[in-house]
Amino acid sequence: MKSNRNASGPVCAGPSRLALATGVLGLLGAAAFPATAADGIRAQILARGLEHPWALAFIDQGRMLVTERPGRLRLVAPDGTVGAPIAGVPAVDAGGQGGLHDVVTDSGFAANRTIYLCYAEEGPGGNSTALASARLSADGRRLEQVKVLFSQRPKVRSSAHFGCRVVEASDGSLYLTLGDRYSRKEDAQTLDNHLGKIVRINKDGSVPPDNPFAGAGKPAGALPEIWSYGHRNSQGAALGPGGKLWMHEHGPQGGDEINRAEAGKNYGWPVITYGENYGGGKIGAGITAKAGMEQPLHYWTPSIAPSGMAFLKSDRYGKAWQGSLLVGSLKFDYLARLELRDGKVVREEKLLQDLGQRIRDVRMGPDGLLYILTDERRGQLIRLQPAP
């Protein structure tokens, strides 16, 4: 059986256990709770009552966009007021792990007001992960010029493993993480489908000509959108040092991985893994290494069910934290701060353990501070305040 604290199964979250009663949308949370082992850093609640929020993006004037898994996109004001659902969101197939997932703003948002949404899309044969672009209206109340840029193939009847993190590369192309849909894990090793892959596309949905399987001499049947393969279910991705794509992915029972996803490389799932089947027992041959398959930069056993990923580029929390990699844990309710040296994880610090909530997303804001979302029935948007 899969734990309901792990994103590998449908979530049955109870009421928030943070000791601030309300849950009314739009109330500003001025109270703060101490962050465990964080030298005075405080968790300040900005908004609460969000229904299973999944991702946040910063727009203008201190405002943020927040997705809710059931299919709503909301605008949160600097004072924590949560607006009504924004109109024009594409049809979302919400159920189990599926729904409205990631939201990111275009690098040129100030001029073009473009955002990107990742979500579960229904269609012939089941559902799959889709990516759409849209323009946020000047008043922030609706989406305009909505265009589906990509739909994962094939569609599968499954409510699990959508992946669905979006990252804009330094050259303006878009990376999108795609899950193996749980029931189709072997497809992560073949290149004629999008299951268990990361794809890279242009902002108009076209394929960059320098993708690893786009040019002459590619393997027969390989889809040109594919950037890397052999992934299970990635719910965190970010640009790291040198503009390289970093991502993490859920293992099954153990074996959650952090990888640096590079063009054309095979990350092994389900042939190699540091996890095992739910309830015990080896996966495949039970091996952890094989020629031609990449080893993770870091892995967790037991699984922490990672979600959200951000590099801290500011010094707002002191020089010791600058350059850290932040990852949320859904299963154990903490924020991991990972110290890196020469591209390797050398130390992990567990923060916010007193919060008692599933951490779904973490982002660094334009103010250099960290913001997190908690994936609960009455989820919260929280800012980490540094020590005065």
UniProtKB/TrEMBL annotation:
| Name this protein carries in UniProt | PQQ-dependent sugar dehydrogenase
Transmembrane residue ranges? none
Question: From what organism does this protein derive?
Answer: Noviherbaspirillum sedimenti
> Do you know which Pfam families this protein is assigned to?
GSDH (PF07995)
The entry's keywords: Signal
- Taxonomic superkingdom: Bacteria
Q: Which residues form the Glucose/Sorbosone dehydrogenase domain?
A: 50-383
Q: Which residues form a coiled coil?
A: none
Question: Which segment of the chain is annotated as a signal peptide?
Answer: 1-37
